[in-house]
Amino acid sequence: MLLRFLSSRGFIFTDCCFDRSVKSANRRASTSTDRRFLLTEETIVKIPFGSKVLDAVLSVPDKILPYAVVLTHGASGDMNCCHLISLAKYLVSHGFLCLRFTCKSLNIIYRTKAYKAVVEYLRSSDAYKLSGIFLGGRSMGSRAATSVTRQADQDNDSFIQGLICLSYPLHRPKLQAKCRDEDLLFIKSPVLFVSGTADEMCDQRLLEDIVVKMKAPMKIHWIEKANHSMAVRGRTMDDILLEVNVQVLSWIREIIE
C-alpha cells in the first residue's frame, strides 16, 4: 500500500510494510465494501499538540461524505490496533473520512487534551470541508472521547455529531462500586456503546442502569460472551470485528440521514 507522509517539509511517497495484524485487519475490513467508495490514500500526519506532535493516519475515500470519524486506542497499544484499523477501513469503504491517532499517556486528562487537538485539526482543515465529526475510541480512548464530547455539548458545539464507545471501561475489574460515569451523565450528543457481555471492565447490568439516567439518545450493542478485548471463544476475530463495524456504520447513518 502506498502511504503519503505529511510533514512540514512537504510530501514524501514511499512503500511501507505492515505487520501481520494490520494486514489481517485490512482483509477483515474488505468484507461488505460499498463499491461506490474506494480507499484512495492513507496520509500519515503529525498533529500539533503543544510543543509535541501526535502521530495519526488519515484514511480518505475517493468520494468523501461531509463527515469524519476519529478513533483512538486504549491504555495499551496504538492507532494500529486491529479494532481501529478494521473499523476505519470499513467506514472509509462507505465514504467516511477516518482519522486514527496515537497517544500513549495513561493520564486521562492528558489524553483528553490530545483528543481536543485532533478535533481542532480536523475542524480547521481546508482540505476537507466537514459538516461534523464522530468521536470514538476503544477502552481508555473512549473515555477521552467521552470527556471531549461532554465539554463540546456544554459549549453547544454542533461540530461533534456523536460518540462511539468501544469496550467503554466503566470500572476497573471487580471494582464496580467505583464507576466511571461522571461524563456520561452530562452528554447530550447521541452515544453508541459496543461492549461484550463478558467484559470484565463493563458490567452489563451496571451499564444498562446508567444509560437510563443519561440525557443523550443512546444505543447499546452487546457482543455475546465477548470480553474487554472483544474476544469470544469459538468465534474468529474477523467475524466479531465485522459485527462491530456493521453496528457502527448503521448507527452513524441513523444520525446523519
TrEMBL record:
Parts forming coiled coils: none
Pfam family, one: Abhydrolase_11
Domain KANL3/Tex30 alpha/beta hydrolase-like: 68-249
Protein's name in the database: KANL3/Tex30 alpha/beta hydrolase-like domain-containing protein
Annotated source species: Anolis carolinensis
